[in-house]
Specification:
The complex is a heterodimer of chains A (about 270) and B (about 325). Chain A has about 270 residues and is mainly α. Chain A folds into two domains: about 1-55, no CATH class; about 65-230, MetI-like fold (Orthogonal Bundle), CATH 1.10.3720.10. Chain A contains 13 helices and no strands. Chain A starts with a helix and ends in a 6-residue tail after the last helix. By secondary structure, chain B is mainly alpha-helical. In chain B, about 75% of the residues lie in helices and about 5% in strands. The chains are: A mainly alpha (about 270), B mainly alpha (about 325). At the A-B interface, helix 1, helix 4, helix 5, helix 6 and helix 7 of A face helix 1, helix 2, helix 4, helix 5 and helix 6 of B. Chain B: It comes from Kushneria sinocarnis.
Chain lengths: ~270, ~325
């Protein structure tokens, strides 16, 4: 009886905290379904007749959403695939054919993640300028890949380490080449792990703002740049801004709900299990 | 052919053929590692080297004739630039304040969500959602719909309570930024600390309970030491992320008013992209790298230590 009562107390506190944390997101969603007039009001309207008007404006031809959404999707997707293509062979070699230098290489790779982006911003900007890679999807893709590669190598490595070594030895004995072992034996076994790694990289690339804001202008600009363009719109476009934000944030928040565990594993480099 | 393979497999087996295989595989292993290593060298290490080089150069894109070796000139200018000191101070305030809030709140919330109650899973999922919101969106939502002095929700709430609404971004710019970043990152601390709590050694807790320890003693002697490691990781990781905060500031205060919210990344951005001073901003960038390294060294040592513990297992 007593335990049950404290349980209810905990539930009330827990849900209250959860709702407070979630409230700004909820408020953004509500605002997205308002008209501009109801969105910009001194007394906030909690009950109103919802309208899709702002979504229609945000998605209208010429509003630009699709252009930015395509760039976000394309750069996040390609950088994730490229990251996997680079990370898998490296992690495979380190996990199954370790040498004296393996630990060093792995730790070195992880350590590059801790170089602040501003530490490499200026040379990259100058090099990109001379190569015509400013405001270019591929320039951005390479940066996203470099940003996520240490995490991806680490994660794939940790998943490979869960695969029993006997399997590789058995494949060797059966005369499989290194490539065959990797593609036919190990990859199918580690597929769920690779999917988690890809998911995390996708989330991080989609939400990335620093490189998008500094390296792109319009052609390769992502949704982060699109949303940032609302920053001087004092009160005029709150509903539209919220609608565009909802369209930008929702897919990733939902993916994030499913990626909680992978997030911990990847972002702490296995230091917390 | 077939018989040969079989003989190798069944006959000597074990170590001999294993060693043979790894000797044969040495070359492919290098080739497998090379693309990732080269990629990181080209995109991270080479530019870092160039930043160091530029930091010793007179190099302003607006004054192409003035190029040349500057010695420690840029660093000397930096140290006498009041804005740089402001930026450094702001960076440290931001890091320390956000750490205190996110780790403190994160720990409380982790303890809360570690208890069982109705709908805990859904509540936890709602509570961690802010972490997945794009930083630019966070900035604009808070700046406009929550912090706005007239039309913001917080102002409305304060008016309803008979209080004078506050112009958050104008009068408490740094506090506003700290609130926004903490809102985003408390879920991260929560998530990791919760993972740590869930791996608590149950048997030890049982043991101290049998010995008649109360809740506080249990917390003090079992939970805290176990969480110590996890806290360490959270603090180090968050420090590095907070040091490089940019999008939230870009989307809201643009470093102002004045230099009130200009942190080191924003200072570098302004000097490189608006003053075109490659040399000076490179010197500041090296400052940021050194600052990040202070935290990273400990973290990397920890990761490396974990690695060896892992291979011993």
């Amino acid at each position: 009886m007593n335990a049950q009562r404290s349980n209810i107390g905990l539930a009330v506190v827990g849900w209250l905290v959860a709702l407070i944390m979630f409230f700004p997101i909820l408020w953004m969603v509500l605002t997205a379904f308002k008209t501009e007039q109801t969105a910009f009001s001194t007394t906030p309207e909690f009950l109103f007749s919802p309208t899709l008007e702002s979504f229609r404006t945000a998605l209208a031809q010429g509003a630009g959403y699709w252009h930015y959404a395509f760039n976000s999707f394309f750069t996040a997707m390609v950088s994730t695939l490229l990251g996997l293509a680079l990370a898998v062979p490296a992690a495979f070699a380190m996990a199954f054919y370790p040498s004296k230098r393996t630990d060093f290489t792995l730790v070195w790779m992880v350590s590059t993640k801790f170089i602040p982006a501003v530490g490499v911003l200026i040379p990259i900007f100058l090099i990109y300028k001379s190569l015509g890679l400013i405001d270019n999807d591929w320039g951005l893709i390479m940066l996203f890949t470099a940003m996520n590669l240490p995490i991806m190598v680490w994660m794939v490595y940790s998943y490979f380490r869960d695969v029993p070594k006997d399997i590789v030895e058995a494949a060797d004995i059966d005369g499989a080449s290194t490539m065959q072992t990797m593609f036919r034996v190990i990859l199918p076994l580690a597929l769920p792990g690779l999917a988690s790694t890809g998911l995390l990289a996708l989330i991080l690339a989609w939400n990335e703002s620093f490189w998008s804001l500094t390296m792109t202008d319009h052609n390769a600009a992502t949704l982060a740049v699109f949303i940032a363009s609302f920053k001087s719109a004092e009160g005029l476009f709150w509903a539209k801004m919220s609608a565009a934000s909802v369209l930008t944030v929702t897919p990733i928040v939902v993916l994030g709900w499913f990626a909680q565990r992978q997030m911990v594993r990847g972002l702490t480099f296995g230091a917390v299990k | 052919m077939t018989s040969e393979v079989t003989a190798k497999g069944t006959g000597t087996a074990g170590s001999a053929s294993g060693q043979g295989a790894s000797r044969r595989r040495r070359a492919p292993v290098k080739r497998l590692m090379a693309p990732a290593v080269i990629f990181l060298l080209v995109w991270m290490i080479v530019p870092l080297g160039m930043t160091i080089y530029y930091s010793f150069q007179n190099y302003n894109l607006m004054m192409p004739m003035m190029r040349g070796f500057a010695g420690i000139g840029n660093y000397a200018i930096l140290l006498t630039d009041a804005t740089f000191w402001d930026a450094l101070g702001n960076t440290l305030v931001l890091v320390v304040a956000c750490l205190a809030v996110t780790v403190g709140l994160g720990l409380l919330l982790a303890l809360l969500f570690n208890a069982t109650f109705i709908g805990r899973g859904v509540a936890r999922t709602l509570a961690i959602s802010p972490f997945f919101v794009m930083p630019v969106v966070t900035g604009l939502i808070w700046k406009n719909m929550l912090f706005h002095p007239v039309y913001g929700l917080i102002s409305w709430a304060m008016r309803s309570l008979g209080l004078e609404p506050i112009d958050w971004l104008a009068h408490h710019p740094m506090l506003s930024i700290i609130i926004m970043i903490s809102w985003e990152w408390t879920p991260f601390a929560l998530l990791i600390l919760l993972t740590g709590l869930q791996s608590l050694p149950e048997d030890q807790i049982e043991a101290v309970r049998l010995d008649g320890a109360n809740r506080w003693q249990e917390f003090r002697h079992i939970v805290i030491p176990h969480l110590g490691q996890v806290l360490y990781v959270v603090v180090m990781l968050e420090s590095i992320f907070f040091l490089t905060s940019f999008a939230e500031i870009y989307a809201t205060t643009s470093g102002g008013p004045g230099t009130a919210t200009t942190n080191l990344p924003y200072y570098i951005y302004l000097n490189a992209f608006f003053q075109y001073d490659i040399g000076l901003s490179s010197a500041a960038a090296i400052g940021a790298v050194i600052l990040a390294n202070i935290f990273a060294i400990f973290l990397i040592r920890f990761v490396a230590g974990n690695l060896n513990a892992g291979s011993a297992r």
